[in-house]
Write a structure and sequence with these properties.
heterodimer; A: 6-stranded mixed sheet; B: 3-stranded antiparallel sheet; 16 helices
């Protein structure tokens, strides 16, 4: 562990609804360190989505403290939150969320655009990352020409483009077959173990959660279980 | 740079949306270009109608028209048109009566047109062929050239030139023989004469003579005493010898009553044919201003000055074509051959002429030495035109003073109707069409944004700022706008071609222009005068570079507007939408 990346104290996120306020998260306390591979589990409505939004600087807590690398995200403005997302956070989505009109390489490059990375550096970095995820020969393909596993690996390459401190994965294997899902999870796990990138995965899949070193369960906006588990060796 | 790549990919790889939006814009832009083209075509047509005055740089036209010139207060001098006679002075040139024809107008009309009466006997011997041209002022009356000098004295006037406009009647044929037989004589005159009775001396001498002849006159009642030769017998020669001489001879003078003998003379059978044309006199020394100018030459050269140049003429191109006359040909008029030295483009107002003479030549031909029918005036600046026109009205009361600006209001017919329609509805129609096109672009862009919520959310989640996302959307819509503009130019070109192919005919009638046909008496002079001021024009919708640029500019504006609305919508999306609902 390389120190606290996230530190949540009494975090609440309340949404206004017609019948009254609804607390999606209700007093979450959580500390996540660098290089951890964390699986977040819970039934629908438990608060997983809200927690991921807060961790990803996509939203701010209604109350409580949320420190990211020592910075109080609640106090940051829109521009600063955008900067945090572009520099320090990589996202991997269930539906891959690739831009359909851009090639695999361009989909990786698009994440580097906000940082003003030079075109040649962008292209080189994209090529390297695609090579790392086993898609060196698919850089010029449109997403529609790639399989689901390939698309998700492109998404992982995109998430790594700016060398983030953390990767937040939203059901990354939800649309993949089990073999491909295993490959994707292994890539994520390798990032955690080999590159000390913190990986937080929201998942319903037990086999994915089983690969994580830490499993956090949510229910009704509260953390009901937070435990370290032995890593299942890849088979 | 990446944005350009991204925009390019978006436009090419979402081709359906790109084309659909661009075509929507293009239709609107094309129609707007078409509307602008038609409007410009109408403007061009109206310019053509008004070109004669504008092309000669004339700001004000001064004429004297019968039945149209209102009387002015202080204009008390009656018009005394007497071609060749003593010139009238001051406002007397233009005296008239509003709303009708006064005695002065009537006299002027007769004087100006008296040579319309053909004296057949003056044409030559019976059976001899003749050609004769008569020049009439019709209802556009002439006035002394002194008016030119009076107008020149008005403040603000920079140049003044007089012109003479005449309706010509060209007659050819054979001089007819006219014989009228009037039978007289056969009258019977009856007169009763009662001589004075014989005096005593006469009676005594008479009886003495009879007695010497052996004739005895008995007492009254016995067969004597009556008139000589009475008594039932025939006249006795002795009586003739013996009667006093005053009974033998009777002389008296009498005068028969005055009588007028009338006989209907049948018109002689002739082969005289008539043809009308219009003639104008211009100052050869002023080629840049007048009823026609050197700038309107289409062939040949301008009129010469002095010497033999007096027999040079210019022909209207249309008239020359009709008569198959070319530059260098001659046309005989009243025994003189006039050389055609140039052809001029036709003008369309009441001042249009078929033949343009040197002013002095036409004045001589028409018997109107020192007289003009029109004065063309230029003013030092546009803003002073109305003031100068008012000043001329003051200097020359009763004159018909028309400014070129006022001419536009006097053009009627389908051209004016179309022009009015275009000005009233053209702008609104263009605005509606443009609004529709913009609305299509905006709605399609909003639809596109709505379909790309997850994509936009993803961009925001991976660190794209709102501004960057808006720029991306605007770049795409501007690209679509550019494409729509190019396509719109094509649609506009098609509209322009369609209008050109259909080539609707518009008529322009310059009813109020000061010319022969502008008078209430125009009908008297028939078709030739009426045709002079009605023009048919083929409508076109010209495509001008400026119009095309406006079209592309509007398309880009539509794209920008769509991008602003679409970008605003996209900017409002929370980045969290990239995640969807995880629970």
């Amino acid at each position: 562990m390389t120190g606290h990346l996230y530190e949540l104290r009494g975090v609440r996120r309340v949404y206004r609804a017609g019948a009254g306020d609804v607390a999606a998260l209700d007093g979450v306390d959580l500390i996540v360190g660098g290089g951890e591979f964390v699986a977040v589990e819970g039934p629908s409505g438990s608060g997983k989505s809200t927690l991921l939004q807060l961790l990803g600087a996509l939203d701010r807590p209604t109350s409580g403290s949320l420190l990211f690398d020592g910075r109080q995200l609640r106090d940051l403005g829109e521009r600063e939150l955008t900067g945090v997302r572009s520099r320090d956070i990589g996202f991997v989505f269930q539906g891959f969320n690739l831009i359909p009109t851009l090639t695999a390489a361009e989909n990786v490059e698009v994440a580097m655009v906000p940082l003003g990375t030079h075109r040649r550096a962008r292209r080189g970095r994209a090529t390297d990352l695609l090579g790392q995820v086993g898609l060196a020969g698919r850089a010029g393909h449109l997403p529609s020409r790639l399989s689901g596993g390939e698309q998700q690996r492109v998404a992982i390459a995109r998430a790594l483009a700016n060398q983030p401190r953390v990767i937040l994965a939203d059901e990354p294997t939800g649309n993949l077959d089990s073999a491909t899902a295993g490959e994707v999870v292994e890539v994520l796990r390798a990032l955690s173990t080999e590159q000390s990138v913190t990986v937080i995965v929201v998942t319903h899949a037990a086999d994915v959660a089983g690969r994580a070193g830490r499993r956090i369960s949510l229910r009704d906006g509260r953390v009901t279980e937070d435990r370290m588990v032995p890593v299942v060796p890849t088979g | 740079m990446f944005h350009l790549t991204f925009v390019s990919h978006e436009l090419r790889r979402r081709l359906g949306r790109t084309v659909l939006t661009a075509v929507g814009l293009a239709l609107g832009i094309g129609l707007v270009i078409g509307i602008i083209g038609v409007s410009q075509g109408l403007d061009d047509a109206q310019d053509d109608v008004l070109a004669p005055l504008q092309s000669v740089g004339t700001d004000i036209l001064v004429t004297r028209v019968v039945g149209q010139t209102p009387a002015s207060a202080g204009s008390t001098t009656p018009s005394t048109p007497a071609p060749g006679g003593a010139p009238e002075r001051g406002g007397g040139f233009f005296a008239g009566r509003a709303g009708g024809i006064g005695q002065a107008d009537t006299d002027a009309l007769l004087a100006e047109n008296r040579n319309v009466v053909t004296d057949l006997a003056a044409l030559g011997e019976p059976g001899q062929p003749f050609t004769r041209d008569f020049f009439l002022s019709a209802t556009l009356l002439s006035f002394p050239e002194e008016a030119v000098d009076e107008i020149r004295g008005v403040d603000g006037v920079t140049s003044v030139v007089g012109g003479l406009y005449q309706l010509a009647e060209h007659q050819t044929g054979t001089v007819p023989e006219i014989v009228a037989s009037i039978q007289t004589g056969g009258e019977t005159f009856t007169q009763t004469v009662r001589p004075e009775p014989m005096s005593d001396a006469e009676r005594a001498a008479f009886q003495q003579c009879l007695a010497a002849q052996g004739v005895t006159i008995g007492p009254p009642g016995a067969g004597g005493g009556g008139p000589p030769g009475g008594g039932g017998r025939g006249p006795n020669p002795a009586f003739d010898q013996c009667l006093p001489p005053r009974f033998l001879e009777f002389r008296a003078q009498f005068t028969t009553p005055l009588r007028t003998i009338q006989q209907v003379v049948d018109p002689p059978s002739t082969d005289i044919t008539s043809a009308s044309y219009t003639a104008a006199g211009v100052d050869p020394a002023q080629p840049d201003v007048g009823l026609v100018t050197a700038g309107q030459l289409s062939a040949g050269r301008w009129l010469g000055v002095g010497g033999a140049a007096g027999t040079e003429v210019l022909l209207n191109v249309a008239y020359a074509n009709t008569k198959a006359v070319a530059v260098g040909d001659t046309i005989p008029i009243n025994g003189t051959d006039y050389t055609v030295v140039g052809l001029v483009r036709p003008t369309l107002t009441g001042s249009t002429a078929d033949v343009y003479f040197p002013l002095a030549t036409l004045q001589a031909l028409a018997g109107k030495a020192g007289r003009v029918t029109q004065v063309l005036v230029t003013v030092d600046r546009a803003g002073a035109v109305d003031r100068v026109a008012d000043a001329i009205r003051t200097v020359l009361p009763g004159a018909e003073v028309v400014t070129t600006e006022a001419l536009a209001d006097r053009v009627t017919g389908s051209l004016a109707d179309a022009q009015s329609l275009a000005s009233r509805l053209g702008g609104a129609l263009a605005a509606i069409v443009l609004t529709g096109a913009f609305a299509i672009a905006v709605l399609l862009t909003l639809s596109s944004v709505a379909k790309r919520v997850r994509e936009i959310g993803t961009l925001r989640a991976i660190g794209w700022s709102r501004a960057r996302v808006v720029r991306q959307i605007q770049g795409e819509t501007l690209g679509i706008g550019l494409l729509g503009g190019v396509l719109g130019v094509g649609v506009g070109a098609l509209v322009s071609m369609a209008v050109g192919q259909l080539s609707p005919t518009l008529s322009a009638t310059s009813t109020g222009l000061p010319g022969i046909a502008s008078s209430s008496l125009a009908g008297v002079f028939g078709q030739a005068t009426a045709a002079a001021t009605t023009t048919e024009i083929q409508l076109s919708a010209p495509l001008r570079p400026a119009t095309l640029l406006v079209g592309i500019g509007l398309a880009l504006l539509g794209g920008l507007l769509a991008g602003l609305v679409g970008g605003w919508r996209a900017a409002r999306l929370a980045p969290a939408v990239a995640l969807g609902d995880l629970g």
